Amino acid sequence: MTEPTSVKTNFIRQIIDEDLRTGKCTQVATRFPPEPNGYLHLGHVKSVYLNFGIAEDYQGNCNLRFDDTNPHKESMQFVESIMEDVRWLGFYLGERIYYASDYFERLYEFALELIDQGLAYVDDLTSEEIREYRGTLTKPGRESPYRNRTPTENRDLFQRMRNGEYLSGTKVLRAKIDMESPNINLRDPVLYRIRHEVVHHQTKANWCLYPTYDYTHPLSDALEGISHSLCTLEFEDHRPLYDWVLEHIRVPHRPQQIEFARLNMEYTILSKRKLTQLVENGIVEDWDDPRMPTVAGLRRRGYTPTALRTFAHRIGVTKSDSIVELSMLENCLREDLDAHAPRRMVVLNPLKLIIDNYPKEQVEYLDAPNHPKDKTLGTRKLPYGREIYIDKADFCEQAPKNYKRLILGGEVRLRNSYVVRCDTIVKDDQGEIQELHCCYDPETLGKNPVGRKVKGVIHWVAASHAIPMEIRLYERLFATATLESSKNIPKNKNSKDNNSKDEDNPLIANLNPDSLIVLTQALGEPSLATTQPEARFQFEREGYFIRDKLFGPEGRPVFNRAVTLRDTWAKIKTP
Ligand code: ATP
Ligand code: MG
Description:
- The chain has 14 helices and 31 strands.
- Bound molecules: adenosine-5'-triphosphate and magnesium ion.
- Residues 33-35, 43-44, 46-47, 67, 231-232, 262-263, 270-273 line the site of adenosine-5'-triphosphate (ATP).
């Protein structure tokens, strides 16, 4: 894998350097802790690259840890997709795959430690009451009437919670910290809740008691010997609780939490919750729809692991929020594919061109290089005959000035082939162009015509050997650059008793209606018939494409456009 080579430094690496220098830390250990409740997205790529990258560079370890404390929304499908995506990005997992649920027994014993110290209690308030008692940023909280239960009573109740003697939601275990703390996270946070109705994907029906994230995370980090626990900025206010848990429980190791800014991108959303809504409402095909900012979606769109790693490297890591331009991501892919993708010719909207001075039934095979610079990619044979197809956009009857393609009476070079001149146009009753009649100059293969200049070069395919294919042109999923304030999509957008209208919902109202255009008439050169799924190419003059896993009607191969050749959007956007 080609790795970004420029210097990788950021404030987190500076902290680590300092910790190693002072001896605060001797062995660097990080973790990437996704909750298996959705597919990984670009934001996770930033985190994966940061955590695994640091482990690699400091000869440490990085654990993949499934933060699976909320079985209600989790599944094995998500667990598997996450492992696959991390590996596909090029990071080695080996044996270092962990589940927070592996620690449930230990966490339970730790909770008893807190109870025995009088630092945790079983509360019978309902979740609404707990919320109400918690107070607000301006109003201190109130203590629960159950707060002063004795350790013996709490031990007994907690044991019975575990045994399944109480209904879901009727009791919780809370830390006893400070209901008047200015930090709401310290106002007796919930540590455990009861959930009977779900079967956990790992622990099955063994537990009906589930620890919360804030309780589980520091302890899992400690048990795994994590030195630097890197998370996004919204957890900054949780750090005092992270530290509180580790201060009051006897753990063998003391990790530190460091926060960094999450990745936000233009024209897309990086939130599993919102992405789930797109999938569940059928707005996209699935998690791997090529318009999705998921790793699976980007992969199907044509992104390479190298492009995504380069992107993660370039955006860097800081403490301040920003929105990254989409062109930054696309340029990473262009650079990679420009250097490595073989070239092919595909006509998206075919127009027939008949070369009247070329013998009927004759076919010749022309040599075409697979890459303009990288000779190691070799050459291929292109059949050339009397009838070929060019793109409709490459012929113009009333051409504007500077038009460098084919016009009536004008000449153009067929890429990797001869120069042709258009002599007549055949139209149907509606005035639509049906075909063009041309003649070719047999002296122009691989050399310029004598005594005249031909500027334009267009791509083409031989009619006799053309492969019908389906082309999918993808554009950004949303029409607006920033979707920060997007509310939820209603659960079922077609449901009659749902009063909210689609246009009221920012996610739906801001969808780009042209995010997918399917072209069914496209024709490609014969070498494209035998490509494997995920093979990537530059279709000359059209963009970079990847062979999809699906087939179109009549078994046609489907190709997705990964990215255009140039960033045309930047010009449109800034008038
Ligand atoms: P989402 O809001 O999409 O559900 P999350 O933070 O809840 O994201 P997790 O599965 O908990 O998702 O995330 C695993 C790791 O990835 C966490 O350490 C989290 O901080 C990090 N992460 C998630 N989203 C981003 C992002 N947009 N930018 C950087 N890191 C992210
Ligand atoms: Mg989360």
